[in-house]
Design a protein that fits this description.
Largest sheet: 2 strands, antiparallel
Number of domains: 1
Radius of gyration: 12 Å
CATH topology: DNA Binding (I), subunit A
Distance between the termini: 24 Å
Low-confidence stretches: 86-95
Number of strands: 2
Oligomer: single chain
CATH architecture: Orthogonal Bundle
Helix content: 25-40%
Bound molecules: zinc ion
Strand content: 5-15%
Strand order of the largest sheet: 1-2
Length: 95
């Protein structure tokens, strides 16, 4: 789990945080945006990539819930913004 935030370039991070409006995608936490974390929906270890469509912003609590197995990948997907919405609001294109 410690590799989540590695290898994601600055531009992708900026797009991602803007996309999620500097809030936890699950609970909406935004008191201290600097502690928000980037999580891979599909883990890199099983083929997930660093595309925005595979990334989500979570607060440390929600991130922990996922990594302790309380939330699963399906739960997390429910909180992801639709790719369609994303493409409509930014010029980002998935590599
Ligand atoms: Zn949260
Ligand atoms: Zn994670």
């Amino acid at each position: 789990m410690s590799s989540d935030r590695e290898l994601i370039d600055k531009e992708t991070k900026e797009h991602l945080f803007e996309y999620y409006e500097y809030k936890c995608a699950r609970c909406g936490y935004d008191d201290f945006p600097q502690i928000l974390q980037i999580h891979h929906v599909v883990p890199v270890s099983i083929g997930g990539n660093n595309a925005i469509s595979n990334l989500i912003i979570l607060c440390p609590n929600c991130h922990r819930l996922y990594h302790s197995g309380i939330l699963d990948m399906v739960d997390i997907r429910l909180y992801q913004r639709s790719e369609k919405g994303f493409y409509l609001t930014t010029k980002w294109s998935d590599p």
